[in-house]
Amino acid sequence: MPELPEVEIHARNLRRWLEGERIAACEVVDAKLTAGMEPGALERALTGRRVQAVRRTGKYLLLDLDGGETVVVHLRMTGRFVRDDYVAGPAPRPTRLVLNLESGSRVRFEDRRRFGRVWVVDTANPGACSELAALGPDALLQPLSPEQLAEITRKTGRSIKTVLMDQRRIGGLGNIYAVEILFRAGVAPDAPANTLSNAQVREIARVTPECLEWAIGAQSRGELIYLGEKGAENVFDLYRRAGQPCPRCGTPIVRSVIGGRGTYYCPTCQQR
DNA sequence: CTTATCCCCTGCCGGC
DNA sequence: TGCCGGCAGGGGATAA
Q1: Which of A6, A49, A56, A59 is catalytic?
Q2: What are the angstrom distances between the C-alpha of A35 and each of A32, A74, A138, A207?
Q3: Which nucleotide has the least CA–C1' distance to A229?
Q4: CA A44, CA A219: separation in Å to the nearest integer?
Q5: Residue A98: helix, strand or coil by DSSP?
Q6: Which end of chain A is more exposed for a tag (fewer CB within 10 A), N or C?
Q7: Nearest CA to A20 among A41, A50, A43, A56?
Q8: Cβ neighbours of residue A210 closer than 8 Å, sequence gap 6 or more
């Protein structure tokens, strides 16, 4: 589920919870989280270390530890960090990792579908994580200029939505924000990237950081919104609103599938 | 290089 | 009520 805005909220929370804190003990509850690592390697890397900084790039969280190592986390679809003395209410979702802090509080990683992954790399060599090594510039911290985006789009006939979601090109955009960005830009999601006008490319470049900032603001107001969970309010213009009127023109919103992902668009407002 | 399909997992929701 | 297919905001592997 989480895309750049939700991962950014996580980074801000983890800064408040972890920065400057020492991890007294750590328990990997689900070994699948550390698939590919030596058994016990994550525990060894974290135990007794102090978290010096929390960073985000694309959809990746990076926890820099004293001693020169960095823990890289990808939340995938359903991962999330919670602090027990912060998040109210019972019914904790499945716990995969527990960090017990020296200060006494506890931070847990929950992940219903168990797709989340963790790596440990030298802080000086984050590229040791191959996924991270292939990641393009962050869509918010290093937004592409219209010229840079045009350089990417003119070289491929893939749909513009697929290109926006390609983490090797742009880091951080996923299915929801690709949908919302293309709506704001007035561009049809299935338009081949190399057929877009300069004006369309410029518009996509312009609305991308705007849309992400809006989402960070919306997601900051309370608990992160995880659509599909009970009580989750859909704050998006088009996403998962097939058949409902377009907020701009009233035309019923259409759902299609692009690259295997549910895609929503307004056939009137979005042009090829 | 590209697309398509499947896979990894679990849970929810709507329809019958 | 109960079952069942569809769907889900991630990415990788594989085949064509």
Answers
A1: A59
A2: 5, 13, 26, 37
A3: B12
A4: 34
A5: strand
A6: C
A7: A50
A8: A184
Cβ contacts of A142 within 8 Å, gap of 6 or more:
none
Q: How far is the CA of A113 from the C1' of B8 (A)?
A: 9
- What pLDDT digit, counting tens, does each position of A212-269 carry? 999 999 988 777 777 777 677 889 999 999 999 999 999 999 999 999 999 999 999 9
Q: pTM of the full predicted structure?
A: 0.95
Q: Which nucleotides of C are covered by protein (CB under 7 A)?
A: 7-12
What confidence tier does A93 reach under pLDDT thresholds 50, 70, 90?
confident
Give kind and range of the element (H or E) at residue A198: helix A198-220
Q: Among A59, A253, A9, which Cα is nearest to A168's?
A: A59
Q: What average pLDDT does chain A have? A: 93
CA A197 / C1′ B10 distance in Å: 42
